[in-house]
Amino acid sequence: MTVVCEGLVVRRGAFRLEADLRLSSAATAIFGPSGAGKSTLLETLAGLLLPVSGRIVLGERTLVDVARGRTVPSRARGVGWVPQEGALFPHLDVRANVLYGARGAEPPSFGRLVEVLELEPLLGRAVAGLSGGERRRVAIARALVPEPRILLLDEPLSGLDDARRQRILPFLERLRREVDVPLLFVTHQRDEAAWLCDEVVLLEAGRVVGQGPPDELLTSAE
């Protein structure tokens, strides 16, 4: 699945993001320091922010073309979105949270996601009792149940200590291998980008300053 951002300009208060990108890897890291525009880029792809100019194309489908007044609503983009905090529904148990995106029905993808993310022991539990890592796994499953065309992960390991991060990384790596959905993964951790991704987009101060393999881009970013 190819993602194209052409002449994209997004304003968020005083901040300005400019991006011209073509992404086609199975897993791409959006990498850079805090305030570089990583989350802004993902939220724009998800349809949560609207650009002031430019185009976004996912596969053969144009999601945004500002010049032509075209914007596909976020719910109709076929994009899975996992924000930093997961945003689970506290009044629903794990099973109901995962199935929320499928409107309560149990789609064919449900069993496979439960297996890959090892959620079976959690399905009947309240989300308030979950650890941070468990909550992230539930949020990822919920985003994938509707079978999106691409999955956007906004720092899914942020706020976890190193031990918990190291326990979650293998789940993400297995997800990449076994679930046929391209990943865009926001991070400012080099080890996460190097382990999970084929390609890195380097952002600084709202601009793309590099794109290429992790072993090249992450070394030059040091």
How does this model look, in words?
The protein has 222 residues and is of the alpha/beta class. It is built from 7 helices and 11 strands. The strands form 2 sheets. The chain has a 6-stranded mixed β-sheet with strand order 7-8-9-3-10-11, with helices on both faces. It has a 5-stranded antiparallel β-sheet with strand order 2-1-4-5-6, with helices on one face. A hairpin with a 2-residue loop joins β10 (199-204) and β11. 39% of the residues are buried.
Measured on Cα atoms, how large is the radius of gyration? 17 Å
Q: Per DSSP, what share of the residues sits in E-state strands of 2 or more residues?
A: 25-35%
In terms of structural class, how would the helical and strand content be classed?
alpha/beta
Largest sheet: 6 strands, mixed
Low-confidence stretches: none
CATH class: Alpha Beta
Which structural traits does this protein have?
single chain; 222 residues; alpha/beta; Rossmann fold; six-stranded mixed sheet; 7 helices; 28% strand; globular
